[in-house]
Amino acid sequence: MFGQIFAALVSGIATGMPLFIVASGLTLIYGVMRVLNFAHGAFFMIGAFLFYNVLGGVTGSISLLIVGLLIAALSVGAIGAVSEVAVFRRLYARDHTTTLLASYALLLTLDGLVQQIWGVSPRSQTQLPAFAGSFQILGVRVATYDVVLIGVGAVLAIGLTLLLQRTSFGQTTRAVAHDQTMARALGLHARGVQLAVFALGAALAGLAGGLISPLLSIDPSLAPTFVVQSFAIVIVGGLGSMGGALIAALLIGLLDSFAVTFFPGFAGFSLYIAVTLVLLLRPQGIFGAAFASREA
Amino acid sequence: MKKLWIPITGVVLLTLSGCSAGSSTGSSADSTITIGMIAPTQGAYAEIGKNITDGFQVAIDEVNANGGVAGGKQLAMATKDEGSSPQTATQAARDFTSNGVNLLGGLFSSADCAGVDPVVEQSPAILVTASCASDTLTGGISGTSPFKRTFGVAVRDQANAQALAEVMAQKFPNVTNYDAFGFDYSWGHETWQTYRDGLTAADVAVQVNSEQFVPLSASDFHSQVAAISGGLTGPVASRGIFLATFGAGTSGFLKQAQAYDLPSQVALIANSGEYYNVARSLNGQAPDVWNSYDYNWAAFNTTMNTQFVTDYGKIANGAKPVGWTYQGYLIGLSYAAAINKAGSGDPEAVRTALEGVSFDAPSGSLTMGAASHQLSVPSVISHTVGDSTSSDGVKVIETQVVPYSGK
Description:
Structural class of chain A: mainly alpha
Strand content of chain B: 15-25%
Distance between the termini of chain B: 56 Å
Strand content of chain A: under 5%
Number of strands of chain B: 14
CATH class of chain A: Mainly Alpha
Number of domains of chain A: 1
CATH architecture of chain A: Orthogonal Bundle
Order of helices and strands of chain A: HHHHEEHHHHHHH
Number of helices of chain B: 13
CATH topology of chain A: ABC transporter involved in vitamin B12 uptake, BtuC
Number of strands of chain A: 2
Structural class of chain B: alpha/beta
Distance between the termini of chain A: 44 Å
Strand order of the largest sheet of chain B: 7-6-8-9-10-13-14
Radius of gyration of chain B: 21 Å
Oligomer: heterodimer
Largest sheet of chain B: 7 strands, mixed
CATH architecture of the largest domain in chain B: 3-Layer(aba) Sandwich
CATH topology of the largest domain in chain B: Rossmann fold
Shape of chain B: globular
């Protein structure tokens, strides 16, 4: 029994951390701009395709891996910046429904472009030999790459927290998120901040796409897959809360893992049970409104 | 709470994404008979759709190059998007018939076929389906089709699973401890049940360690792979994994299983459903897998198969055809044979001609069941492994053809 619990614990964290990496950009963009960006899934997918293109399907070394991730993140960040200027900037003054539909339209557009550029055949990115395979801890098998993803997720969580809490960029960002009009009155360049945050959020999606691509089939069906879970994480964690997203991702990963291990019949919809419970008991999410109020 | 409807609506919208459609129509001239192919052209299943239409195109190109049908008429293809819902597929069929295209083919999803078949039944059109292999659509091999105007070329789902069970029982009689992983809808559950029953009928004392079923759209199987890895029992030689998945589901599971070294901890990974395209997509890293489906390019040592593989390679940069390509190809051959038999492209005459029509195919002579409307296609058991030195990244170790059993 201990072995099963320990295995479910490790598996849950390994499941949750990639979800956090995807959800972090989503919650960042919502936290500052109040845009629930459905196109985030397309950014994730493009990141995976670009990573594949840069490395040609074979991950030869750690340095190549890092170069591939950087190119994927920066390129998708640039696409995010263009999207912000071309689509979302014009809609901030409109109601949420308008931006919501615009982001959905952007998702479909990018989805179509991906099919035009990369075609419909699935692709596969091989794993770096150093990160392939598994090892055992206390009799529980752990995938080496899961440890890598957990490490990257932890670094990202700390890095984003420091960026938002301890830097002048973070201060400006929080000011814009809290009260855009006041921020402008104080001479802050709100539009520049919004552009930078949107690009950063998109870059995080691109980074996630590259990071997770060795575990997935890279094809046009990628766009909606992780994003549905990411939206659930944003809801459970609290809209716009980075810390909430991390906790929610880990909770959802653990819930899924324990359900699969001990209650397989519930595994398929444990995610939705969590979302329903949070909506009923704490509608604002575990750390709801944290970014705009407490974190600010 | 007020703003939470937005993300919730978003999740619903995302779930519905991919419901887009594109279309093109064909027209019939006296010297040309147009067949309307309905297949996914966008979204998650676009590759499957391309395989089906490419296979059909190869068939009609071969037929046309050999003088055409019914006294020299040429066959032509028009296409419409199947989309990802029965509504879209049904609309595509209606569009074709309203434009006078009444010989229809294609369709990937049995759910879509279940929507389209009744519509075709009430129209002057006839339909030869590609991958819709549910018993409820054809009435089974020896039964009577519930639809007079619909025919099928795919091996029944349960026939493929049964064939795989029979062969695995012979080759791996000591593999008794099974973990099952499949899509959480009727096909996934029924395929696993048929395979398990087939093993039991062959005197294999099956022990089920775990059954993991996931949504069709899922791609992250961390928890399932970890649970299977942690729950393995008995010696390696007794362990097997059965996959009731296809496409990205199979690919994602195998990649995540490799991260846990799962293939090396079991004696057998068996999969029922199209797999060659998955193995090919894994860049030479595919694990050792036994699969059952309608076709493997290496299974048939016939002139016609060689021609099919060669002709498909010309339009696919040398790639080998897969099961879905073969299904599209068989639709083309079925129509060509029926139109020749009928002497025209008149839908009613072609419908009558399709019942009981026989023709040569890469696997040998095939017959369309007069009552079942089911083509007598054998199952192909393929044993493959990734091979980075092969042009496809796949090494076909062994194939075994399980003849059409008539049930």
